[in-house]
Amino acid sequence: MSELRRTFEEMPQQAVPLERDAAGQPFIRVTRREFLKLSAAAAALATAGCRGPVEEIVPYVNPRLVAPGLPQFFASAMTLGGCATGVLVESNMGRPTKIEGNPSHPASLGSTSVFEQAAILELWDPDRASALAMRGQPQASDALQTALLGRMQRLEQRHGEGLRILMRYESSPTLAAQLQALAQRFPAMRVHSWEPLHRDHSLQGARLAFGRAVEPLYRFGDADVVVAFGADFVGEGPGHLRYAREFMDRRRYRENPPVNRLYAFEPTPTLTGAIADHRDARSPAEVAQALAQLAGALGGGKVDDPMVAAAARDLQAHRGRCVVVPGEALAPEAHALVHRMNAQLGAAGTVVQYIAPICGDVDCTRSLQELVADMAAGRVDTLLILGGNPVYDAPGDIAFRDALARVPFSVHHALRMDETSATTTWHVPLTHFLEHWSDARAFDGTASVVQPVVAPLHGGFSHHEMLAMLLAPVAGGPRDWVRAQWLGNAGDAQAGERWRALLRDGIVADSAAQPVQVAARNGDFTPPTAAQPWTLVFRPDQSMHDGEFANNAWLQEIPRTHSKLVWDNAAYVSPASAQKLGVKSGDRIEVASGDARVVAPVWILPGQADDTITLPLGYGRARVGRVGNGVGFDAYPLRPAPMAWAAPARSVRRIEGEHTFATTQNHAEMEERDPVRRINVPEARELHQKPIENAPEPETLYPGWTYPGYRWAMVVDLATCIGCNACTIACQAENNIPTVGKEEVRHGREMHWIRVDRYYEGSQERPRTHFQPVPCMQCENAPCELVCPVGATVHDSEGINVQVYNRCVGTRFCSNNCPYKVRRFNFLHYTKRDGEPPLDARNPQVTLRMRGIMEKCNYCLQRITRARLETEREGRRIRDGEVVTACQAVCPTAAITFGDLSDPESAVSKAKRSPLDYALLRELNTRPRTTYHAKVLNPNPDVPAPPAGEGKGEGHMVPPTTPGERGGG
Amino acid sequence: MASTPLIRGRWGYASITDKIADIVLRRPTHWIWGVGLLVTLLMSVFFFGAMGYLFTRGVGIWGVNIPVAWGFAIGNFVWWIGIGHAGTFISAFLLLLRQKWRNSINRFAEAMTLFAAGIAGIWPILHVGRPWFAYWLVPYPNVMNYWPQWRSPLVWDFFAISTYLIVSLVFWYVGLVPDLATLRDRATSKTKAMVYGFFALGWRGEARHWARYEIAYLLLGGLAAPLVVSVHSIVSLDFAVGNTPGYHSTIFPPYFVAGALYSGFAMVLTLAIPMRHFFGLEDFITKRHLDNAAKIMLATGLIVAYGYCMEVFTAFYSNDEYEIGMTMNRFFGPYAFVYWGVITCNVVIPQLLWFRFARYNVWILFALSLVIQLGMWSERFMIVVTSLSRDFLPSSWGLFVPSIWDVTMLIGSIGFFFFLFLCFIRVLPAITIFEMRELKHEELEGRQP
Amino acid sequence: MSAPIYGLMAEFASADKLVAAAREARESGHPRVEAYSPFPIEGLDDAVGFAGSRVPLATLIGGIVGGGGGFFLQWYAAVIDYPINIGGRPPNSWPAFIPITFEMTVLFAALTAVVAMLVANGLPKLRHPVFNVREFDHSTRNRFFLCLRADAPKFDAAQARRFLERLEPLKIVEVPL
């Protein structure tokens, strides 16, 4: 027993729950096996050499039995663009291995985007800066303090004249407080903000419309009609997870659903465009025109544009239950116009509300311009850059680097030695958010405490500690500062409880921002609608964000949702524009804007507006790490400060040379095979009227096996899937799936267990885009099993098609025989690849696969097993919803249902009874356990079908339950 | 044509024996033999070198991927095993059918079978992801208390191939015994005498021995005949049992067997024509032999052509969208050049064989034999790769591009095959001596077929 | 009486002579006649009084054992020893067991045939008295030999030699033991 206690004491971060448990019943009965597990765990810890943070942290749920091998979950929050998303961090033996969404957090509701998933890899990235450095030379850890000491005194005499701080969007109240204190010590100090993916336009728009800067907050749950102008509200921006859920909850097909309708006008394909009932590709200027026309139509004017007209009628028919959503890229005037329309439509105050900006009322662009001007003029002698990478991501027409070179004393406080660190005098390693204490606000103002789950792996410290160096010494550490921020200095027991609760739940109760009452002014807001020969559209790359994730192999290898490209960004052009330029995918063009010229490879993207070139930001990093250096091209130099999202190109011309892209899907047509079944709302209603009887299974010769116990099954709802890739990367993190690199993907060897297929329907210019996540179908008559000579893939008693890694010899016959091609093979020893996470970062419950072995989705068998172990101890069956697969957990729209078919009342059983339920390639009679719900669309009959070959398959319904007859074979 | 003798010119028992045995025992070999041996040895070195690299890196060095998880390795396997079939066909079927002309070619044809089948047997091992566990296909009591998965055609295949190898070896060896005795008795050195003597098992040609020997040999022939059919049928099941459009076809077994003999006889000619020339065996391997072999090629070639037609027909007749898609893909897809190449090499050009002049012109025959083997290899590529590259879900369609290692190993294996054959010619009588004597005897008796 | 011998051997130039000789020898009551030829000669086996072989029977048995065993192995493994759900197929998927059953039949039959032949022929036997005869080397080339064995009951060397001489062989030699 004493043996045991010592083992546990080696895991400080588990001390808390343990003591509590120890206080209760004897917290652990050691069988021999468990004991071995413990000693093994102890050994693992020793070797892993990672400790939990020294202070007490509180797990999200208190496991009845805290035993090694059972993971613990800790609530924390990850900020992106200043706004927080609540997460639950899975910690195995003190090692963070997986991130889940925090169900009680408004921006997450239990799901996350790809970035939160990939944050784990970011944490364990061996390329992170590990030492304090001056001009690139490693320094003793206290070198900075000494350097600062004298400087601070001199600064103090000058009241901080010449002291500047440049930071990103920050919503941390603690940080704000520190800055205030700093401002008192150095009155003349100035704080600047630069966020490459800033929200300047919307804030300016709000100033125009309301006279003050506010941020809109949407309630898509209350909207029958949504019209989006270049707005990807389900795909990006703070709160997109929440918005996606709210919007899709109204698409989730029930008996008589309150279905909504979405119109989207956008220059370049987005997730929002893909789920829209009506989408039209328009250049930024045309989008602005459409917006102006809509405004006119709402004012009673006559409109010739049929889609706009229809949208206008729809909006007016649903006053108070509709909303117009502007994309950040729109000009400020356009934003203002939209605010006024929403007021006219009675949306303001109901479907859309306004709150004070979460990250403060700042204009990044101006702020940065001022800073650069001062630096250039030599008015800055001490510059603190808190996070960010301005040298890399400053607009092309702001000469940040040169100006920075003129600052005598500059400090870059960031995760990596990057482009900026190369120019500053000092680089200070920043701790990862899983390593430090802080706090942050969500898109709706709800505050969370950022709770560390592991002691800094590479040393370094947080922004708070950094600022503390400039301040008069304060008692305690970052934890105390954060705690003080929320609880004052109350030390009583009751405060302690509140603190625990706060840490446990991951949110500060009722801290959401209060809506502010604003009235839209009158005034003529006319967005610029002048057409350009070529318009450059700047967008954050779906995987790189603003570039900070460039060294993240998982994100590099996640296929971009529409192009399915990996390990690259490309200049996206429409088929017509490509013809105009005389290029094909892979050719290179030179784009000039301002005095910058950038050479970029072209990718032809159906659904892209003509005469526009979309340039994803965040690539072409020079100093980020082994994974991301020199991958893709850097579009920031082309980006002018005033027109940050859409700018006219000075010249575009084809140049010599070819680029080889790697894509995970080569064929975009459905070839009349209709893997994605579509249905319009009226037909769907009819189906529901009919008595529900799914078509009989095709005949089979086999007597069939019985599954007395659980019968695991899955349903993927294509009506609610937005194709965001979260499932793919969550699965990768959960199941230790290796990345393979660009070359291997080019060979068709990507390893993702659940892929998202993308199909186009209709014309190249105006395609309808369909997404279809494809995990293993877990066929009851599995073709793969039949042909395996060694029985390395067999059925378990619960109907899961399991892969026995150590039995596999790698004949690959199973993959040939898998009609869904969901099997993945380790052609080389991928887990040993450079850039793969260290063993400590791996999920200890999932085996690593060596080369020569086949692998595939197994419904997260380890999670099922964990649940079984727990419930067997309690002598009961696993309850519905107790096992949640990784893909299901992360899905923003809860499109994936998983559970036990033996329980007729389980969610999955109910879903299977839906008339929209259908099996992929049913005619092969593989009897898949994974089935799909047809994609439900709600097109407006008034909108004429777009021209050019569309109508072929457009809106055409392929009844989900038609038994396709397969002749011959 | 029956009148044209199987042995040309005036030969007696002694001269026949000496002529053939001396190729092994005395006669200085043609210089071309040495050159050939060197070249093929070099190719073999490449073969085994590449193998070493394969084992250290993994099958990722090839072009295989998902969806095309099977590539050259499987194609080569089927091709080689097919080539092997001619040997067994000649020694078994023609034996049962009392085709006396077989006697002068069956020995080296069987050797060809052994080498081809042996090389074929290597490919599956190279193909698998973890070759060091390939033996798990063998049923044996093990700590995992687990067995092979009997429903998998690959296990059938393992049994078929190993049975085929063993039986062919035995068949060949039994046929050799009396000739080994000849070599023993005519050996020029003691060691040769010892070695040949050892393998001759003390054969002394006693009447009763001959009687039992002939019965056993006949039985072996009777067993090898269905075996040769079953082996390639089972190989074809590796595909036919799968559900991939282009694999999943009931016509495969007969069509594969025909294809096997087609390429096999082509290889027989590829070997026989130079051999008879360089070792002066024109009197034993006469133009009539070549003519017969050519006729069999024509026949099997036509069966193969029929198979091609039926595949297309069934695809459209079934009205199965996937089968039709697969066929259109073969016609016009990215690998169309392979399909049309196959048609040209296996169907169009070989029609020359209808003409006597072509069958009696060694140059044409030799060229044809090469064309047909190329065609048959391409057919395997077409079946294995083209089918996989586009199956059910358009989203997972993808191409296969062979890597330098794919090519090196294919060529290397060919080199290794000829290396083995060149060795064989010099170590064992390439023509069955005792059967030639028997032929001579029957000829004297005027009991010639 | 000279040293004990294996038998008396006569050398012939043609197959027909040998057949005729063998037949005569049998008719004139020589129980143990052996004939050696460089290739199988039709009728020679009756001439020397060969009873017929049981090789085919052995082969049949071998085949049955092989096939039965082959099927049993699969059935036992898949149904009794380790039944497991493979692609929803029943444990006893007998049609899938046929190919291996067939292959095993052929394999065992073939091997038995050869083994039976060798055993019945008493091979391998690297040492044998007839090899002591120098001329016998030609038995694998172009000569035909008839041998009257000395261990036959009431074998009389002189009489045997006289008998052979009547057949006008090329040569008569004693086969020493």
Note the main attributes of this structure:
heterotrimer, B: 449 residues, mainly alpha, Formate dehydrogenase/DMSO reductase fold, C: 177 residues, alpha+beta, Alpha-Beta Plaits, 2 domains, four-stranded antiparallel beta sheet, 5 helices, 4 strands, rod-shaped
Describe this entry's structure for a reader.
- The complex is a heterotrimer of chains A (969), B (449) and C (177).
- By secondary structure, chain A is of the alpha/beta class.
- Chain A is built from 28 helices and 39 strands.
- Helices cover 27% and strands 19% of the residues of chain A.
- In chain A, strand 2 and strand 3 (95-101) form a beta hairpin.
- The longest helix of chain A has 17 residues, at 32-48.
- Chain A is globular.
- Residues 1-31, 42-49 and 947-969 of chain A have low confidence and may be disordered.
- Chain B has one domain: Formate dehydrogenase/DMSO reductase fold.
- Chain B has 15 helices and no strands.
- Chain B has helices at 13-25, 31-57, 72-96, 106-127, 153-186, 190-200, 207-240, 252-278, 287-318, 321-332, 336-348, 356-360, 362-389, 404-427, 433-445.
- Chain B is globular.
- The mean pLDDT of chain B is 89.
- Chain C is of the alpha+beta class.
- Chain C folds into two domains: 5-52 and 129-176, Alpha-Beta Plaits (2-Layer Sandwich); 55-121, no CATH class.
- Helix content of chain C is 46%, strand content 14%.
- A four-stranded antiparallel beta sheet of chain C has the order 2-3-1-4, covered by helices on one side.
- In chain C, helix 3 runs antiparallel to helix 4.
- The two termini of chain C are 15 Å apart.
- The mean pLDDT of chain C is 86.
- Chains B and C meet through helix 1, helix 5, helix 7 and helix 15 of B and strand 2, helix 2, helix 3 and helix 4 of C.
Structure summarized in a few sentences:
Chain A has 969 residues and is an alpha/beta fold.
Described by strand count, sense and barrel closure, the largest sheet of chain B is: none
CATH class of the largest domain in chain C: Alpha Beta
Distance between the ends of chain C: 15 Å
Number of domains of chain C: 2
- Bulk shape of chain C: rod-shaped
* CATH superfamily label of chain B: Formate dehydrogenase/DMSO reductase domain
Strand order of the largest sheet of chain C: 2-3-1-4
Rg of chain C, alpha carbons: 25 Å
CATH topology of chain B: Formate dehydrogenase/DMSO reductase fold
DSSP helix count of chain B?
A: 15
Q: Any low-confidence stretches of chain B, pLDDT <50, length ≥5?
A: none
Number of strands of chain C: 4
Number of domains of chain B: 1
What is the mean predicted local confidence, pLDDT of chain C? 86
- Percent helix of chain B, as a range, is over 70%
Helical fraction of chain C equals 40-55%
Helix-strand makeup class of chain B: mainly alpha
Unreliable segments of chain C (pLDDT under 50, ≥5 consecutive)? none
Q: Could you tell me the radius of gyration of chain B in angstroms?
A: 23 Å
